[in-house]
Amino acid sequence: MRPIIEVRDLSKTYASGTHALSGVTLDIAGGEILALLGPNGAGKTTFISITCGLVTPTGGSVSVDGHDIVRDYRAARSLIGLVPQEITLEFFETVMNTVRFSRGLFGKAPDDAYLEKVLRALALWDKRDAKLRELSGGMKRRVLIAKALAHGPRILFLDEPTAGVDVNLRREMWEVVRGLKKEGVTIILTTHYLEEAEEMADRVGIIDKGRLLLVRDKTELMHEFGQKILTVELTDPVAALPAPLAGLGLDLGDDGRTVRFRYDTHADRSGIARLLAEFAGHGLAVRDLSTEQTSLEEVFLRLVRDMA
Ligand SMILES: Nc1ncnc2c1ncn2[C@@H]1O[C@H](COP(=O)(O)OP(=O)(O)OP(=O)(O)O)[C@@H](O)[C@H]1O
């Protein structure tokens, strides 16, 4: 099936001379959730802005369901909803009027039945006659999504949807996004929160200094680059580990008891048997063992470091 978004060799150099994007090529499949991760200034917002026609690329192309975003701007843009980073709302307007207005901006005929569906999906229907200033922060964020969906787009861009919101609200937003995916909406989100990508994304793209370092199925990425950490708890604390153990790349915790050992889950030998034999050989009694998978955060930091 043809991807819903095709990005080819996309570049952007701002008038200031900043290369915000360099040679980005990417296909986004209909119905997927793609999380774009990257440090500040990586080029994520520039990518979104180009795709939404707010910024002109200096090289390459983006097409949305076959419509070029420059040559065929209107058709491409009508397929996209954009939830910006900042809350930009008319605080004295009601929820219903706000979404009606957004729909009108796209030249779509009024369709209150459709807007009702959107507001219900976002748990805002009961608030349809409330003025925006009367809403909680979480509701305001949901109104931003309702506005972005008002013209019935098939693709939704969420730029840092949960920046600066508390944990409960973040979870609430995740639920909303999952619900939209079920409706068949393609979702591209940028985030600084790796937990968010880990929780939500089907695929993860990593951008750094304007380059797309990789795009990979999230589970594959975690599996391929993930390491496991074995935590060994010693029966008696030690001031330092015996010298022969130092070469194994172990971390001794401040308590002198907890030893952490990273190992590659794909290596033929994990090194655990040798490690435990060394512990026994040096008279270190082990009280407990546990293992954990490294998080996407660690995968991300390693990739950005390795590819820098
Ligand atoms: N209008 C502009 N004029 C000149 N430079 C810009 C402009 N917008 C962005 N930049 C620069 O382009 C680079 C990429 O910025 P962009 O906002 O796309 O990154 P980002 O990944 O979205 O960052 P953040 O996570 O901080 O939002 C940065 O160096 C930024 O300073």
Automatic annotation (TrEMBL):
SUPFAM superfamilies: P-loop containing nucleoside triphosphate hydrolases (SSF52540)
Keyword Nucleus found: no
Entry keyword set: ATP-binding, Nucleotide-binding, Transport
Family matches, as Gene3D superfamilies: P-loop containing nucleotide triphosphate hydrolases
InterPro entries assigned to the protein according to its UniProt record, in alphabetical order: AAA+_ATPase, ABC_transporter-like_ATP-bd, ABC_transporter-like_CS, ABC_transporter_ATP-binding, P-loop_NTPase
Molecular function terms from GO: ATP binding
ABC transporter domain: residues covered: 5-234
Protein name per the record: ABC transporter ATP-binding protein
Organism: Albidovulum salinarum
